[in-house]
Amino acid sequence: MHPNLTAGIDVALLVFWAFVLFFIGLIFYLRREDRREGYPLEDEMTGRLDTPGGMLSTAATKSFLLPFGQGTVTAPTKGREPVKIAARQTEPFGGAPYQPTGNPLVDGIGPAAWANRAKRPDIDFEGHPRIIPLTHAAGFSIAREDSDLAGWPVIAADGKVAGHVSTLWIDTADRLVRYLQLEGEGAPLLAPIFDAKVDRRGRRVVIDAITAAQFADVPRLEAHDRITLYEEERVQAYFGGGYLYATRDRQEPLL
After folding, report:
1. Where does 106-251 sit in CATH, by number?
2. 29 Rama sector, left if φ>0, alpha if ψ -120 to 50, beta otherwise
3. How confident is the model at residue 140, as a pLDDT?
4. Cα separation of 221 and 218, whole Å?
5. What per-residue confidence (pLDDT) applies to 219?
6. Arithmetic mean of pLDDT over the chain
7. Residue 244: strand, helix, or coil
8. CA 163, CA 156: separation in Å to the nearest integer?
9. I need a labelling partner for 117 at 20 to 30 A (CA). Which of 13, 64, 72, 181 fits?
10. Quick one: pLDDT band at residue 78, thresholds 50, 70, 90?
11. Torsion angle of C-alpha atoms 228, 229, 233, 234, degrees rounded to 10
């Protein structure tokens, strides 16, 4: 059999160039798609925006329909305002570390940084809020061998009592405890359970992320029976940042 489809067409060469053109197109497509967020780039020192990048610039906006009537989201995000951080660079050169100028736990600096997530609760496969107070979770309870921690004191990083546990918030989808709620009036104050050490012998809960006084500035919830993704981000960032910013000695070098 003759190796050519016709006298003037080499099938192997045709397939090779088709693959080359496909691969070049794939590179252009992927580079445009991975620039949906965070572009154009900004110069660290002057704030000047870099050039968009021509053909490798951001692809056309995409819209995604969310389940259970939660609307749509766009990529890149539309209508997002620039975020100003309360910090300054310690030295006038690119890559110099930033130093907080306010309360880093609230301002979201460094390990206390948070993302501007949706102001709606995380939901389960049936469309219900998945993280709710144990008192609102029908059919859920703490095992008889354990305590619901109600009334137990919460000991902060400085050894002082920051408050007492009123109830637990559970994840009904993953079947585990996510937060401790502290007693008090007004909007609920939650602390992540994974930042807590439960001392069963002493019947107390130790949270060494922040001091007792800093519990007053923990971001509060708007509702008493649900927590939004935005609120989760703020609460987690506040306690996470405490491991660096809670006390001055934590910010000093180890060596």
Report:
1. 3.90.50.10
2. alpha
3. 92
4. 10
5. 95
6. 88
7. helix
8. 9
9. 181
10. low
11. -30
Query: 87 forms bridges with which residues in the sheet?
Result: 100
Residue 71 has pLDDT above 90, yes or no: no
Amino acid code (one letter) for 121: P
How far apart, in Å, are the Cα atoms of 178 and each of 80, 147, 165, 227, 247? 30, 15, 13, 11, 25
- Report the predicted TM-score, pTM, of the whole model to 2 decimal places: 0.81
Q: Print the SS3 string covering 81-104.
A: CCCCCCEEECCCCCCCCEEECCCH
CA distance 164 to 154: 6
DSSP string computed for 103-169: -HHHHT-GGG------SSB-B-TTSSBSEEEGGG-TT----TTS---TT-EEE-TTS-EEEEEEEEE
Question: With 70 as the cut, is the pLDDT of residue 80 above it?
Answer: no
Which tokens in the block code for residue 235?
């609460």
Nearest to 189 by CA among 161, 209, 212, 217: 217
What is each CA distance from 4 to 9, 11, 18, in whole angstroms?
6, 6, 17
Q: Which fold has domain 61-103?
A: Photosynthetic Reaction Center; Chain H, domain 1 (4.10.540)
- Residue 87: pLDDT band with limits 50, 70, 90: confident
d(CA 221, CA 120): 12
For the chain, give every domain's residue range: 61-103, 106-251
Cα separation, 49 vs 56, whole angstroms: 16
**Cβ within 8 Å of residue 76, ≥6 positions away:** 36, 37, 39, 58, 61
- Hey, what are 79's tokens? 């209508």
